[in-house]
Amino acid sequence: MAKKSIRIRAKVKKGVTEVKTLISHPMETGLRKNKKTGKKIPAHFIQEVTCEHNGKKVLGADWGVAISKNPYLSFKFSGGNKGDTIKISWADNKGKSDSAEAKVR
Amino acid sequence: MTSTSIKRRTFLKGSLASSVLGVAIGAGVLTPRMVLAAWPKSAFDAKNVNDTLNALYSTTNTSKSSDIKIKAPDIAENGAVVPITVTTGIKDVESISVLVEKNPQPLTALFTMGSNTEGFVSTRVKMGKTSKLIVNIKAGGKVHTASKEVKVTIGGCGG
After folding, report:
1. Angle B35-B41-B46 (CA atoms, 0-180°, nearest 5)?
2. Residues of A at the B interface (Cβ-Cβ below 8 Å)?
3. Which percentage of chain B shows pLDDT scores above 70?
4. Is B37 on the interface with A (CB under 8 A)?
5. What is the pLDDT of residue B85?
6. Contacts of B112 (CB under 8 A, 6+ apart)
7. Alpha-carbon distance B61 to B142, whole Å?
């Protein structure tokens, strides 16, 4: 994807790293209807999100359709240092995926 | 062996070439859902809380815990964006699941925690109408649960 779909902020404080991330994604539920045609808009949502710290998985998330549009996700883990790499990747039900990396500040 | 599993076999053989993957999806042999084998489809398809619990933990026997804190608004003006934060003091958390009781499919999110991940998760969910938020935490083979009622004044599913 040409446009970056993931924004990551990671900050370490007292040995605990807090990661905040925003993903831009429509997150269609498959229940909504197009008002003009009356046809259902097909479901299109992120199913899996993986968060890695220096290549080690710290959080896996399986999502359903009820996660809000442009999902926000935040989590904490211990043992992170400044300059470490945080990698977030997602995959949706249409087979699309994206990933991004950021340094812990 | 059913015909679908034969197709799956063929698919596994060819899965090294990403083009094959694309063709397989294009031909409708595989829906993208099947590609993500780890995604617990049955749990996400479940229509009520008990079915979801059964699919996730193969039990509906959960114990109430005061050590799970759910931070969510008492009244959500917009059901499409309800910020929730789950914090827990429970040790060795394996997974956290978030359910919205009255949504068509209650299971909203399932978080799998790493060994050094803190008991903290924050995200935003959609709620169709006023409902209970249920958080289940699996730790040490037990399922701990807590819930919080959120009133929704505008639904999240109508757009």
Report:
1. 165
2. 16, 29, 31-32, 47-48, 56-69, 71-79, 91-95
3. 73
4. no
5. 94
6. A59, A60, A61, A62, B94, B95
7. 9
Which structure tokens are listed for B72?
């969510």
Delineate the domains of chain A, giving CATH numbers in brackets.
6-103 (2.60.40.10)
Compute CA distances B94 → A17, A57, B141, whole Å.
Answer: 19, 13, 9
Task: In chain B, list all ranges with CATH 2.60.40.2470.
Answer: 41-152
pLDDT tens column, A38-60? 788 888 989 999 999 998 899 99
Q: Does B91 touch chain A (CB under 8 A)?
A: no
* Residue B42 contacts A where some CB pair is shorter than 8 Å: no
CA distance B145 to B69: 10
DSSP letter, residue B60: -
Measure the CA angle with vertex B155, ends B154 and B159; round to 5°.
105
